[in-house]
Each structure stands twice: as structure tokens, then as C-alpha cells.
Amino acid sequence: MKKIGVLISGRGSNMVALADAVRDRRMADAEIAVVISNIASAGGVVKAQERGIATAVLDHRGKTREEHDRAMAAELRKHEVDLICLAGYMRLLSPWFIREFPYRILNIHPSLLPAFTGLNAQAQALEYGVKFSGCTVHFVDEELDHGAIIRQAVVPVLPQDDEHDLAERILVEEHKIYAEAVSLVLGGKYKIEGRRVLEATESL
Ligand code: GAR
Q1: Which residue in the list 60, 68, 79, 109 is annotated as catalytic?
Q2: What's this model's pTM, rounded to 2 decimal places?
Q3: Rounded distance from Cα 165 to ligand 1 centre (Å)
Q4: Which CATH superfamily is domain 1-101 in?
């Protein structure tokens, strides 16, 4: 059984999508071992508890970034996680944390990277005037929203869209590709060449 640790800061809909994929056996022999939030009032904490998933609230305030990340790493190790999924975790991770778990941390970002990194990616896309946007699941490296790309999905940007409309359309796709990407990584049927994540096929 592969164990997943999920880091959140908010409502946790991507965490729920991963939990649903586990429940529906769309994820090869995996379970969510722990959900960690840096915000006590995050809606995702209650949603995890309702699903019987262990939760921990680790407040980042009053600690250095690395101190906080060391506390998270200790909690993740306690639950013996194989993979760490950032799901609306709205803090930068320290280089220390990222080096502790090489190619073991995934992130989901609501744009077609490398476009529109950082906060408010959907608003950035609208303001820029792109006709298509989407979402990206990638390995986390030491640069923001930068690591090797595992999955992307595209959605149209419609003329009447506001930020909420676009975010909702993207979110539907986030929930699909995050479970697919986690399943791929846990299954191990891929290889990495430079920045390219290649899914195993007969020809690899
Ligand atoms: C999602 O849209 C996720 O892609 C985004 O925050 C939202 C979290 O929603 N993440 C980022 O912008 C990270 N830079 P959720 O809490 O319902 O999963």
C-alpha cells in the first residue's frame, strides 16, 4: 500500500478528489495517510476528518520556513508517506524540504505552466487575454511552479468569463488530472529525461 501525504491551506477540493480516487480504486493500491494544513480553519481539514483521514494542523506562524517544514517532514515521516501532494498549499517550501523528498513532491497549479506562475493564476490568464488556459501537475523543485510536468489539461477562456468562472472550469480538470498524475507516479511506469516525464509504453 502506497501512502500519500497531502498539504493544504484552504477548502481542499483537490484533496477530496484524491480521496475519491482512492475510494473508487482509480489509484493503484494507495491511501491518503495524513492531511496537513498550515491553517487551522481550512475547510479541507474538516472534509478530511469526515472521510476518516488523519489530519494535523501545523501553524507556520512564529517559525522560520525551515522550522515549519521540518515539523511537516516529521509528521509525514510518522505516517511513512511515499508521496507528498500539494493541494492548494499556499506557502513556498524551503530548499531543505524539497531536497529531503526528491521527485516525491507533486503540485497542482491552475494554469498551463510555464505561463502564469504564483498567485491568482486564473486572474493573470484573464488579464493577459489568453484564449485557452488550464492546469498543470508537476514535480516540485526549488523554483516556484517550475519542476518537470506530469499532466496538463486545457480549458477555453470564454468572453464573458470572470475569475470565478474560469477558476471553476479549470478546477473540474484539476480534479481529474491530479488523480491521474498521482496514479502514474505511484505506479512508477514513467521515466524522466531532462524536464520530460515520459509515460511507459511499449516503445520506451
Ligand atoms: C486550486 O485551484 C489549486 O490549483 C490552486 O489553489 C486552488 C486550491 O483549491 N493552487 C495554487 O494556486 C498554487 N499556487 P482546493 O483547496 O479546493 O484544492
Answers
A1: 109
A2: 0.97
A3: 15
A4: Formyl transferase, N-terminal domain (3.40.50.170)
